[in-house]
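Quick illustration, no need to memorize.
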Amino acid sequence: MKNKLAVFAALCGLFVLAAASAQAVAACRSGLALCVELILPSLFPFFVLSGLLSRLGLPAMLGERLSGFAEKAFRVSGAGCTALLLGLLGGYPLGAAYIAGLRESGAVGGEEAGHLLAFCNNSGPAFFLGALGTGVFGSARCGLLLYAVHAAAAVLTGLLLRGRAPAASAAGKGAPPLPFPQALTEAVRQAVSASLGVCGFVVCFAVFTGLLNANGFTDLLAGRLSELSGQALPWCRALLTGLFELGGGIGALRGLAPTPANLALAAGLMGWGGVSVQFQTLSLIADTDIKSAPHTAGRLLSAMFGYALAYGLGSLLQNR
């Protein structure tokens, strides 16, 4: 039954592509431009660096020092806790790629890896300060504020879910460190594969949202949502677009004032990451035994925490 529905949806997509080929080509070009100008320059170096650090033995080095804190705070191993640090520094979906690497090396168990996905796959400071802060709200300060909110939401999600964490002792010792030349070679190869996979999903969802916009579905739904919620039409359009693809949703906020509602929406979208990030994560853990359900639950919690924190801080700063 599921396959029949998927085939039907694919056939509908094929029909829409044929009927609106010009719009699909334009959306595809936009997605490719986003990959070349933002995704690849910001993600590829971090993919290489994270893979290199993992193969050189960073999880084992920091794992011993962080084990006490990690166990008390999040009920994860010290090696697992390094995923939170790299995830917050690198951005989507670096955290997922790093966790997959930890699992493949045996540094963490399968259940712990799934638990780590819930709060360690986050956006990084480059996107917040550049694309979101300066690019959308015209203020690096807003970007810094939203990044702090994003990090706090990730930590709160980890703390909230600690009761569901598996025993950290399930983790193994991990693979031995590799010589630098071999570690760098493997890291680059993995980074190329991961980057191409991410860009593929970015382009795919750019075409999807572009076709929705071209056929007026987004404006129709946004108008209805605006009537029901009382929010402005651009706010509703950004919400609907960002639910599927993060870059498009954040781009739809461009030019809006940094009001509490707009800051909260930006934080919520960054916390959720979009359906595109969900599929990017699935592609990175496809060859492992890591379950994806904790990631989806964690992203929803992070979005809710981020929205509430950003709205509260935005209101506080606005009243000063």
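The chain has a mean pLDDT of 84.
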